[in-house]
Specification:
alpha/beta; 5-stranded mixed beta sheet; 9 helices; 36% helix; disordered N terminus
Length: 267
């Protein structure tokens, strides 16, 4: 078995598996026994876990998360009709959920800022997204049907007229963005589209997208249309979009909403 094949097998064994994570607080004095089920994009795991901890401590309301690609989460919500809030990686996926009648009016917390991730030292001399079409490169991307950045990336490649050429170089189409991070960390891909908060400076270098190619997404959150605890769900949405909640996003590398630097980005 070749080294690349071994690396890809190892990658498959290490891929992030979406599932449930329950966050409980130390402060139970608030007298509220509710546990919220929140559907969250997998790329938001770090800030959302911390937000859940702070929220649970503050209000005595535990938070249970289901982390997955946004497309998968929408399907889960549609089939189960259970849960209390939805926070995907960008407004396009929230819009899909709203058109299906799954969620209500959103609030906005932060920005997902896509960038080009390349291997440390940029040995393939990648300078722009057009290089993704260069024959022989190994590209890792989020799934177009499961991740917000995967969908946005395909639209960008199509705009540049390179979608088919890029697809020929794709070695991984991952159901969540976390698997793309693993591929870059392991060196099984030469380049990827990731978000600013996911760049690992020890294994990757970053190339900002050209201004006209900006794929910045706004991170929305809203209560589900079928929550059985609307007051607690509303409280959670308000906390995530509060200054305190946004500060946690900032701590994990996300620009917070609104930001004049992204004034042209609309929900």
């Amino acid at each position: 078995m070749s080294k690349n094949a071994i690396a890809l097998v190892t990658l498959a064994l290490l891929l992030f598996v979406a599932g449930c994570t329950t966050v409980t607080g130390d402060n139970t004095a608030a007298g509220d026994d509710a546990t919220l089920l929140v559907y969250s994009g997998a790329g938001l795991k770090k800030p959302m876990i911390e937000i859940g901890e702070v929220f649970a401590d503050k209000y005595g309301i535990d938070v249970e998360y289901t982390f997955a690609g946004s497309g998968t989460l929408i399907t889960q919500m549609e089939l189960s009709r259970k849960g209390d809030a939805f926070v995907p990686g960008g407004t396009p996926d929230y819009r899909i959920a709203r058109e299906k009648g799954l969620v209500g009016e959103p609030g906005y917390a932060a920005y997902h800022v896509p960038v080009i991730a390349v291997a440390k030292g940029n040995p393939k001399n990648i300078t722009s997204v057009d290089d993704f079409a260069r024959p022989g490169l190994k590209i890792a991307l989020g799934g177009a049907n499961t991740t917000a950045i995967g969908r946005a990336g395909d639209k960008l490649f199509e705009k540049h007229g390179i979608l088919d050429a890029v697809e020929a170089n794709v070695v991984l189409r991952a159901p969540t963005i976390n698997e793309v991070v693993v591929a870059m960390n392991m060196g099984t891909a030469d380049a990827a589209l990731l978000t600013l908060d996911l760049i690992n400076p020890e294994t990757m270098d970053r190339i900002d997208l050209a201004q006209e190619d900006g794929l910045t997404l706004i991170i929305p959150i809203g209560a589900t249309a079928f929550t059985e605890q609307p007051d607690a769900a509303r409280k959670f949405v308000e906390f995530v979009t509060s200054d305190e909640g946004k500060a946690i996003f900032a701590k994990h590398g996300f620009p917070v909403y609104p930001d004049p630097a992204y004034a042209g980005v609309e929900p």
